[in-house]
Amino acid sequence: MAEKEPRVSIEECSYRKVLDIVSSKWTVLVMAALSGGTRRYGELRRRIADISQKMLTQTLRQLERDGLVERNAIPSVPPAVEYKLTPLGETLIPHFREMRQWAHDYYPLVERARSDYDRKHEMPATMD
Amino acid sequence: MAEKEPRVSIEECSYRKVLDIVSSKWTVLVMAALSGGTRRYGELRRRIADISQKMLTQTLRQLERDGLVERNAIPSVPPAVEYKLTPLGETLIPHFREMRQWAHDYYPLVERARSDYDRKHEMPATMD
DNA sequence: CTGTATCCGCCTGGATACTG
DNA sequence: CAGTATCCAGGCGGATACAG
């Protein structure tokens, strides 16, 4: 009789699965840089401002492990390594574009809301 | 002449803006719980498994500050507080559904890729 | 019922130095 | 050129206790 209150757990949460893949700091930026085609390591490093070697490598390794990026080491001197999106990785690109669109349409409203909220809550008791 | 290598920075990255809003651990779960309509604090707490008071409150405050959730405190004894999505918050729900769909379609491939990767890289030198 | 306050471990990510 | 290794600070999130 009583209305059900369905419980959701974070483990069975599809959103979390996706976010755990793409939400680390540089992931989307790296994938976006690869959406234009095959890129070499140093090329990525130059295109993505302020990314460190450690973070670029770490992000690429994680993407490779998740099957979103393919690594191709060319045995030459000096060594060259190419990275590109896998078909699986490509399936995320449209979603990134939608995120971009959302940010374009609505992010100004978020900034507005934030400053409104902060003004209302940070006033150090100046009221008479 | 040389081909341009356009640089992207993380500050002007639209993806980051969106992810910074929704990627904290409980955010999407809370918004999803609110997508069914107005909910009270305790109701949310019961519906979302394993969320602590601190995390629920903190997530709600952040959502309120970003203008995605509206808080309505009803002056009664004992106090009652209702939360609901704002129109701005509602605009994110379709995107969550798409994330859910992506997870349904492709997450098994990610898990497969991970176990493949781990098998190839974790073998403790057993080769002859 | 709806919160606040405090303490604290862990993990992410940055800086730096070194290597095949 | 394309990494690896190490150290370290800061922040996120969990546990617990208390409050209007």
**Which pair of chains has the greatest number of interface residues, and how are they split between the two chains?**
A-B, 55 and 55 residues
What percentage of residues of chain A falls in helices of 4 or more residues? 55-70%
Order of SSEs of chain A = HHEHHEEHH
The assigned structural class of chain A equals mainly alpha
Keywords:
Arc Repressor Mutant, subunit A; 128 residues; DNA-binding; mainly alpha; homodimer; three-stranded antiparallel β-sheet
Describe the structure in your own words:
The structure is a homodimer of 128-residue chains. Chain A is mainly alpha-helical. Chain A has a domain at 14-91: Arc Repressor Mutant, subunit A (Orthogonal Bundle), CATH 1.10.10.10. Chain A has 6 helices and 3 strands; from the N terminus they run H-H-E-H-H-E-E-H-H. Chain A has helices at 14-22, 27-34, 41-47, 53-65, 87-90, 93-122; strands spanning 39-40, 69-74, 80-85. Chain A has a 3-stranded antiparallel β-sheet. Chain A starts with 13 loop residues before the first helix and ends in a 6-residue tail after the last helix. At the A-B interface, helix 1, helix 2, helix 3 and helix 6 of A face helix 1, helix 2, helix 3 and helix 6 of B. Chain A binds a DNA duplex (20 and 20 nucleotides) through helix 3 and helix 4.
